Amino acid sequence: MMTLGTELPKFQPDIYGRIALNDLVTYAVFLLSQRGGEITAEDIVAACFKLFPERFQLRGYAEWPDSTVVNKRWIDCRDKGFLQGSTAAGFSLTPKG
Q: Strand pairing partners for 39?
């Protein structure tokens, strides 16, 4: 589980703004996997928003993450074979991811 005090790398919006959302979600799951333990859907939403706030903010409410965008992207990443899992079972990267 990701905590509020977790140190995460900082990226400039002009750089991550050019990267596909699926790639950003896959990278967030990679970072979460480095910490060990189960990776929940909530962990992915929080990590995406903390790492890349301008790409994963709720439209009109910049201080809140948009879980719908993240959910659509992890489903796409799972369908492409980058991630495996579900909200009930947790998530992990595949060798392709």
A: 91
